[in-house]
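Let us practice reading a record.
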Amino acid sequence: MVPSLPLDVLVHILYQIPPSRDLDSISVRTIVQCSLTNTLFREAAAIPALWQQHYQVRYLHANEASEGQRKAETNGNWKLMYAARRMIDMKVLKHLDSIVMKRVGRYDHANALTKFLFDAWDVLEIETGMVDSSRHLKIREFGERHSLSATRVYWASAVLASIGQTYAVGLWSSLRLGNNSVPFVQAFSSISCFFGKHPDEISSMLISLNSRCKSYLSRLNIPLSHTDPNYDSKKLCILICDFMSNEGYGPVVPHNSTFSYFPVRVLVHISVPDPEVDDFYVDVFGSQTILTLRDDIPAILARQGIQADSMMHYISPSGAASMLLRNGRNILSSLNIPATPLSLIRPSALLALTIFLVLTGGGRLVIQLMSQAEPLDCATFITEALIPSLDGAGKVQDDLHQASQKGLEEEAISAQEIKLRSPEETVHHFVGMLFEHKRYNYTALITGWDPVCKASESWIKEMKVLDLPRGRDQPFYHVVCMDSSSRYVAEDNIKPLLSASNELLIQMCQNIAILPKLFTGVLTKPKTRSTELRNVPLEEQRASPPPTVTMIITDTETNETLKPPIQHIQPSISRSTSRTPSESRVPPPVHPSIHYGSESPVTPPGYAATTKPTESITYIFEPRPAENAMLLRPAETGGREARPPYYISVTLNCFTPSSHITSIRKYERQGELVGDFEIAAKESKNVSTVYFRGYENPIEEVLVPRLFRNQWTWKPTETHLVLYWDDSAGGNSIACFKSKDKTNTNLLAKFIPRSHMRKPGREIEYTKFEVTPAGHEVFDDILISALIIERLRTNA
């Protein structure tokens, strides 16, 4: 018989088992199995200190009050605390299982999960694997077993965001009640909750950033203590700004600082310990970093039209509440920037509107907030935190309660609905099918269908649905595009994708954020038998080799009861021979139930933007003399993706007719305004200005001539973008670069004026605009700055 090991040796051995944070901790299972061996092992495994490292690695987050209660109830016994948290984990996972497996009652379980708050955070975070749910989507062939992992990760991530939102609203509501004990960093770190990040993650980043900054200053031998005789607070602030700029950040908050509610941009107020020395301000965005209270501040305020007797309102330190409101306004303004990723638009709008509602109680924002809210939001943070936070604003509470309950009731009805295909309904396509839009050529995925168009009469009229071959009495499909936008498409405009490359399928999985909510993976069929092509038109069979039918494995979200038949690719004669009219002058709209801040369906920001091209595209400025305008459009695309056209017009300033205003709009005369500018006449007292991204500034502040008159730097307000223009190449053309190093690698665009006069027999020559693939990412900036420079170059 093998002699027993001493207790202290067994304890030492168990201490060597490394802790882990996986869902089914092998380390803890090993300890538990050891405890079942005999009494001595059980005694060794029961030592509380042994469990401390396992608890602290597994559980990084908790509700502060709940954690204190657990410690009190267990007398700080780490093993008992671990067991208590594991019991919570089991309850959380049971709710998550119900959310994933069954749509009916889904949001009741989500509501129950939210009430755990940060006690549920760790197990849900482990469920996500710390990666995006799209990473779990797999491409499988027929016969392979599919997994619910992608859908499970999607819902775990969504509930994490709801928990964070509930916490953030509770914290911000205390600011509304005048609680000044909430630290500024804590209030702002909670913004991350609306993007599924724990506020402690931001705090950890700030701690690491602070450590790196101190190391940077120490290497430069900069004194950090005001008691040091060589301490220079202004120099210290400038170097901190330099460090943050090198790290890729914009705003900088030095130590011993508060914010002031300054017009145009925020200033940092630096409190100087020496009573003999004036406090000063740091302009973290400006070219002049240090601003004095006696000289610089009054001059800046005067330029903004602010009188001296109102100065204290703008330079006094601002609290977390007022700065959160300002941040909310900035977020809403940024959503109009075309470069804003579509995946950030909804959570950003939800964040900004929530801030306004919590801190101001403004009832007029309820409609806008609910236009962005989904059933999960209604069931979780709106019900559990936002409505209770508005105590005292009875009407706003009632409006929010009614709107959220209406949303949940509609979802409950939809969850119970089962759509059955009948012989009378000729719905040719199925949920999960990839297709290409016949007119606009974008690729999308079907997520639902209606037997006839169920949009409003105004939408049908606006989109010219009645001009389609089959009008409104045909199936209409709810679809999601590669940029995650939702649309409503007539069957007349759908061209099934009979084959799709793996690259396209992978791109689809990565780009469509909502995909894991609706589907569990991608299913392809390696070969298609000839019998399965019997309904494909003969010309399509001859035009391409036997296709690979692509479809998506659905989960319980869609409630479609019949599997799609192979005949889904059968088009009717009218659709294969008739010309499809336009549903709209711009690409089709989002689904009619989706609203963006108004009570009528509108196109979301950047909706019609195309994908980034792979090579340079030449555009031409086509004159429209009768309209005193011109259209910027691709000279020819050759099948490539190109930016939609811009409509550029010139009008007179009614107050100063000698001055002209140039406006740039998307698509047409009444299209979305990109920006405008006015070059004031030399005899006028007016200032030349440019309006862009919601800000109007003197042109001289955003378009700065360099040392020589043939070079300019474009630096728009509220962005870190810098463009470098140069016309030294000759030929009247000007080139735009993304850095001072003017090489072809950094080239973004070229503006090439026409070089020949018109005469009979000569082909019309247009002014050209060549834009590289990288230039398309900042197209609006390049275009408006080029037009201003050309006006300045040719102005008398």
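A brief commentary: The mean pLDDT is 79.
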